[in-house]
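ok so for the tutorial part 2 we go from a plain amino acid sequence to predicted structure tokens. step 1 is just haveing the sequence, like this:
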Amino acid sequence: MGLFSPEHLCFLAAAAFFCAAVIFIGGRLGQKGRQRLLITLWAAFTVIELCKYIYFALNPDEFNIKTGLPFHLCSVSLFTYPLAVFTGNRIFRNFIYAVNMPGALFALITPDIGNSTALSFYFLHLITAHTFIVLIPLYMVCCGFFRPDYRMLPGVTLMLLVTMIPALLLNRFIGSNYYFINGPVNGTLTGQFAEWVGEEAYLLPMLGLLTAVWALLYAPFAARKKSGDCNTTT
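step 2 — the prediction. this is what the tokens look like for a chain of 234 residues:
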């Protein structure tokens, strides 16, 4: 199965429909109902992510220490999402919105499929886990749990750098490529950027893309805040 094959596109459409349906339902619930649904979404994502490690325990021949540990950006969601859901901290919530969510979205659009089939555990887990990683911050924003604030981006950047430390150490000592720091992966955005600018500089367009994504994600809220400030002044 290849990128943007009929199977891949069908799964993307199903993921989009599921996210829209959950947000629609959440918007019609009361405050307690929205909170319960949020916790349910977090619990479902946690179970889905933990299933990967149960699968590895039952199939040790398929586990690779260089790829299977929870030190990729999307796997780090296992730790950042409960912080965002249960603490109410604005940096944590902006982190999952500005970092985890777009990372998972790009992974859905250009996943590292390899030789997987549409019904393989690897692909089904990839689609479902990343769908929840995208859904949870979208649900939180659309259902009024928090409002993205670009002033949190310095803290978000610092948090991103902190979460990269274990990946950097592992990459150094075991030769892995967590966070895709040590090289691009064919079939993903990193591989595409490497084709354009070379493997030595593929991270530069990634940084440019991240900046553009942040601008898109925060511009509507920044404009609304500015408009509100103007209205208050007048």
